[in-house]
Design a protein that fits this description.
The complex is a heterodimer.
Chain A: H1 13-36, H2 44-62, H3 64-67, H4 73-96, H5 107-116, H6 119-134, H7 136-144, H8 146-168, H9 180-203, H10 220-249
Chain B: H1 8-12, H2 20-51, H3 59-90, H4 97-120, H5 142-174, H6 177-180, H7 183-187, H8 200-230, H9 239-273, H10 281-293, H11 310-339, H12 348-371, H13 373-379, H14 384-413, H15 419-444, H16 456-493
Helix pairs in contact in B: 2-3, 2-4, 2-14, 2-16, 3-4, 3-9, 3-14, 4-5, 5-8, 8-9, 8-10, 9-11, 9-12, 9-14, 10-11, 11-12, 12-14, 12-15, 14-15, 14-16, 15-16
The chains are: A mainly alpha, B mainly alpha.
């Protein structure tokens, strides 16, 4: 199975251009906010986080990890993990500074963020997109069509920026979850739905994506073993990511009064 | 009675009323734990129906259900117990809600792994850790075994985080762990009272945190070689090492549940009896003794292993006897003395606490019999063993945990008690007793445990048990429904400003 892995980079000019435009656009907005003194959280770390998010995106898609995504499902799952669980939260963290003060945003954008960042909406979007793209017909289409594949990755990034937003935003910000209980429940729901998909993939007894058995040098048995590994890659590291996210996002409580006199 | 007059409120709330966030996290532990208990209980009903011949489950599914029921129940009751002790301790010792929530997320992630490994992955190896069964089951894959190990890993990690936080919090509050364990008072035979003594529940929290860290450590130690073996990094794991450590982990976790929930009796019962239960010398001595003794008794599950050194076998028997005595004598007799002629009103919580004491005594006696080597040789592979641990789980730990959650929600919500709920509490005891009695009778008649298919002559015991299980399920459903109607207002009450003095 490991013999199928090819050490090569896959430079994609449209993607590089898109990422460069995104970076320049971010810098423009960030610099304007900085020069006008808007927002308390404008900072170099925000720029660094956003840039790191784009770099991880590029690394996931164009490095040998992404270059092998049509040969090995396990490599494809590492790519998805990086997009959803590393790049997306980094991009969300970087963007946070720009929308910290919701009052300064255009009304339509503010309403959109407020709607998308509702926990039930954000959870539904991320879950539906994750599961829909892993359905064999959609996944198969992405494997044979580069534009569809690009849309798949872009939708993962967008969906998971939306997923991480309620956790990353402070309670006073647009869409920020208000309580530790809410954040813990939200994290567990996210961990369980992606964990279940990983478990189904791990324990499947037949190939979900026959494409991987047709790769030169592969067999049905090697593709099945690769599929098990891919499921585990989605499942196990995901749990660690969600545990780390819990450590980072469950904030210490403020001192709160109680209702009942002792 | 207004909420402010409710007796338990004084045992729950911090003097400066600052433990609302920790209390909410603790309530989440208890609700998550008891909710899981309900689901696992339904799986137990399925197994009993199968053993009664009233429902046919394939052996593969039976063992999946048995694995999930057993590991899920132990994890769930422990979770509810941890929530209870955190709530009780937080009244006088500041706890970080953040730490509690993180431990909960990690712990529940482990539960998710176990659920997926059994229900999706088909793992049905129970608690067997010896090669080749867990890794090469006929109906499950290596990945299912790895997922089970990962589940246990996250549960152990969650427990470890919780216990470490409790130890740090108690050390900060009392100045040192020695003071939190009342050692100066203990070793001076009660004469030296210079240190402020911890409340019994605080002392118990430190004891269980120490043993919890030892149990979690044992779990992580045995999991590492098993992971390595499953991944092919090493070829063999010493079988005796694996069995000792898996039992030191699993048995201690099961024991922790009952001892933690016993701590809740110290926290809440005084409020109902109107009598104080201070940290006396016998209380301090008994609970300090629990620290080493709880770690010794696991080996009574290894009597049948001929390779186990005789010294460890004897230690298992002595440890099992010894651990029972101090906690039994001090807690049971102390609780009964507290209740005797106190004029206690038999509302839901005291009923459940009394049932818990009853279950602890009878489950403990069953355990003592099983820990006696000649008896164990005959009884250990029969339903006698599920009988004893179901007794102190269903009628002991779970009853205590339910009683304590009831106390909290009752005190915070201020809702009046329904008469039907009091009846449900009694029916819980009757259903539980009948269900467990049939396990004991089955064990005494040598009905084997862990058998998916029961011979017709064994089915009669399960058939008698089924109505009692249904009664237990109905009473639990009623209690849960009543608790759920109080939950919202109790949760909000932890946020509201203090009214009155």
């Amino acid at each position: 199975m490991i013999d199928l892995f090819v050490w090569e980079w896959e430079w994609q000019l449209p993607l590089i251009a898109t990422l460069a435009i995104a970076e320049l656009g971010f810098i423009a907005v960030w610099a304007r906010r900085t020069s006008s003194g808007v927002g308390e959280r404008r900072s170099w770390p925000a720029l660094a986080l956003f840039t790191a998010g784009l770099l991880v995106f590029a690394l996931a898609v164009m490095s040998p990890i992404g270059a092998n995504d049509e040969r090995l499902l396990s490599s494809h799952m590492i790519e998805h993990d990086l997009l959803m669980w590393v790049a997306a939260p980094l991009l969300a963290l970087g963007s946070l500074a720009l929308v910290a003060d919701g009052r300064r945003l255009p009304a339509a954008l503010r309403r959109s963020i407020a709607f998308l960042a509702r926990p039930i909406v954000a959870f539904t979007i991320s879950t539906v997109l994750l599961w829909a793209w892993h359905a064999p017909p959609a996944y198969g289409l992405a494997l044979i069509s580069l534009p569809v594949h690009g849309v798949e990755h872009l939708s993962f990034i967008v969906a998971y920026i939306i997923y991480w937003w309620p956790l990353i935003a402070t309670p006073s910000m647009l869409g920020g979850l208000q309580s530790s209980a809410g954040r813990a429940g939200y994290l567990l729901a996210g961990a369980m739905q992606s964990g279940l998909l990983g478990a189904l993939l791990t324990f499947a007894t037949s190939l979900w994506y026959p494409h991987y058995a047709l790769v030169p040098g592969a067999t049905v048995a090697s593709a099945l073993a690769d599929q098990r590994l891919a499921g585990a890659i989605m499942w196990y590291p995901g749990a660690i990511v969600f545990a780390l996210a819990a450590a980072l996002t469950l904030r210490a409580p403020a001192t709160e009064p109680l209702a009942i006199a002792g | 009675m207004t909420a402010a007059e409710r007796p338990v409120s004084t045992a729950l709330l911090a003097p400066d009323r600052s433990n609302g966030a920790a209390l909410r996290a603790s309530m989440a532990y208890m609700v998550a734990g008891l909710g899981t208990v309900l689901l696992m209980g339904l799986l137990g009903l399925l197994m009993r129906l199968d053993q009664a011949g009233m429902l046919v489950i394939s052996p593969a599914w039976f063992y999946r259900v048995m694995t999930l029921h057993g590991s899920g129940m132990i994890a769930a009751v422990l979770l509810a117990a941890l929530g209870g002790i955190a709530a009780a301790v937080s009244a006088t010792t500041p706890l970080s809600a953040r730490a509690l929530w993180i431990a909960l997320v990690v712990y529940m992630t482990g539960n998710g792994f176990v659920i997926f490994a059994t229900l999706v992955g088909g793992f049905g190896g129970g608690w067997t850790v010896l090669y080749p069964l867990p890794e090469h089951g006929i109906v499950w894959t290596l990945q299912a075994a790895l997922a089970i190990y990962a589940g246990y890993f996250f549960v152990a990690l969650g427990l470890l985080l919780f216990c470490v936080h409790i130890l740090f919090a108690m050390r900060r509050a009392h100045g040192s762990l020695a003071k939190a364990l009342a050692w100066r008072f203990l070793f001076s035979l009660g004469r030296d009272k210079r240190d402020a003594l911890p409340r019994p529940v605080e002392l118990i929290a430190v004891v269980i945190a120490i043993d919890g860290i030892a149990a979690a450590g044992a779990g992580l130690i045995y999991l590492v070689p098993l992971f390595a073996q499953a991944s092919g990094a090493i070829t063999t794991v010493d079988a005796l090492f694996a069995k000792n450590f898996v039992l030191l982990f699993g048995h201690t976790i099961a024991n922790l549940s009952i001892y933690i929930t016993a701590g809740l009796v110290y926290a809440a019962l005084p409020a109902y009896t109107g009598r104080a239960w201070p940290t006396s010398w016998p209380v301090a001595a008994a609970w300090n003794l629990i620290i080493p003794l709880m770690l010794l008794n696991y080996s009574h599950h290894l009597y049948a292993d001929f390779a186990q050194p005789v010294g460890l076998q004897l230690l298992g028997e002595i440890g099992s006897y010894a651990v029972a005595l101090p906690s039994f004598i001090v807690t049971i007799i102390g609780a009964l003395a507290l209740i005797y002629r106190s004029g206690i009103r038999w509302t839901v919580a005291p009923i459940l606490f009394a049932l818990g004491l009853w279950g602890w005594v009878f489950g403990g006696l069953g355990a003592l019999l099983d820990a006696t080597i000649p008896v164990n040789q005959v009884m250990h592979n029969t339903l006698w063993v599920p009988a004893h641990f179901h007794t102190y789980f269903v009628l002991g730990a779970l009853a205590f945990a339910l009683a304590y959650l009831w106390s909290i929600l009752d005190a915070l919500s201020g809702s009046s008690e329904r008469r039907g709920t009091r009846a449900a509490a009694w029916l819980y005891g009757i259903g539980g007793a009948g269900f467990i009695l049939m396990f004991f009778v089955s064990g005494a008649n040598s009905v084997p445990r862990r058998f998916a298919v029961h011979l017709p002559e064994w089915q009669v015991y399960a058939r008698i048990a089924v109505p009692f299980v249904l009664l237990l399920a109905l009473s639990l459903a009623w209690l849960s429904w009543d608790l759920s109607t109080r939950f919202g207002s109790a949760w909000r009450a932890t946020r509201r400003p203090v009214v009155g003095p």
